[in-house]
Amino acid sequence: MNPDTANAAYLLLNEFIRELATPRYVFDLSTRWEALSPSPEKVIAAFRHMALASLILNLYRLHETRSHFLVPFLYTESELKTLGLISVEEFIGADRWKDFEILRHQYAGHATAKKAEGNIGGHILPPKLLGKAIRRTGLSDPAAFLNRIDKQLLPPVERVRNELGERFPAAKDFIKSYALAVEGELEK
């Protein structure tokens, strides 16, 4: 087992735990804003869009962390399941994973469904396809989706991160040294 992989995985899991708090706060705050008179609808829409993009981005980052750092380098599938950490595909639903990838592309990737070619402009994702993907993934009900994350994903991610920190104690220090190294480069 490579300690560098463990350090990176610990950092990424820690970021996922931290970054997933933001969409929850934004959705809760925007719900309270709805009661204001007049309701700041444009601000609510902008904040919810930002939170949705963050949510999708961070779920995909968890998928990548699991695929490129955890399995098979630090854990087996069986070990992660014992710790309660299912794959993001299982969380979303295997039959809805393509819908999630559409959203990942749309919200955390590109604004186009098709690039411009020759004298024909690009295309955006058709509203029917975008709406279907949002509905099928469960993101049409952000409160319920965030509750699922709070109950089904965050506790096992915390367990895996904590267990990884016990097996590789240097990973806890790596978070600090990594952040300090980044800050040091900013100051040059």
Describe this entry's structure for a reader.
There is one protein chain. This protein is mostly helical and 188 residues long. The chain has one domain (3-92, 141-186). It is built from nine helices and no strands. The protein has helices at 3-19, 21-33, 41-70, 77-82, 88-92, 97-108, 127-137, 142-167, 170-186.
Comma- or semicolon-separated keywords:
single chain, 0% strand, 73% helix, 188 residues, mainly alpha
What is the residue-averaged pLDDT?
Answer: 92
Q: What coarse outline follows from CA principal-axis ratios?
A: globular
Determine the structural class based on helices, strands and strand pairing: mainly alpha
Strand content range: under 5%
Major β-sheet annotation: none
Question: How far apart lie the N and C ends?
Answer: 34 Å
Number of strands: 0
Radius of gyration over all CA atoms, rounded: 19 Å
What is the count of distinct domains? Answer: 1
Order of helices and strands: HHHHHHHHH
Q: How many DSSP helices?
A: 9
Q: Approximately how much helix is present in the residues? A: over 70%
Identify low-pLDDT runs: none
Summarize the structure.
The protein has nine helices and no strands. It has helices at residues 3-19, 21-33, 41-70, 77-82, 88-92, 97-108, 127-137, 142-167, 170-186.
